[in-house]
Amino acid sequence: MVTVQDVKARWDEIQNDDERILFIVGGPGSGKSLIIRELAEQYGWKYLEAKHLIEEEFLLVPHEERPQKAEETIRTALSRSNTEVVLLDGINVLFAPILNLEPLEILKTVSKAHPLIVGWRGHVEGDQLFLEHNNNPKFAEVTIQNPKHVIVID
């Protein structure tokens, strides 16, 4: 079983990497959100739901312009958190087709300035990270560049 201390130890290993993002991966009910909330409590880091990174005004941006605007919008939201590390949960919302985003690329880029620990509902197969959404276990797929940036809690 993965503990808060395990996550913190892994964070300490990767916090000086170029991309400062750690994924806590598990299925529904696996304890991802619990670990993230415990990290917030123990270390004073800010817990955020991903849906709060995209404001309603973002949906007024023309569909084709959203990818360019999204990084700025997310960076601004993370800047307001004023914390050493942002604990991000509910990441599925950023993959909604209506947003027209490449969420992982955006998160990797913003993690250089705003370190992130992300709860990821899904699983890992080899070097592929799958996002589960609406009962689809392979709703989205991304390649893991560095396995140290992923902790599986299932």
Automatic annotation (TrEMBL):
Gene from which this protein is expressed: brxF
Organism (species): Veillonella absiana
Superkingdom of this protein's organism: Bacteria
Positions of the ATPase AAA-type core domain: 23-94
Annotated protein name in UniProt: BREX-3 system P-loop-containing protein BrxF
InterPro entries membership: ATPase_AAA_core, BREX_3_BrxF, P-loop_NTPase
Taxonomy of the source species: Bacteria, Bacillati, Bacillota, Negativicutes, Veillonellales
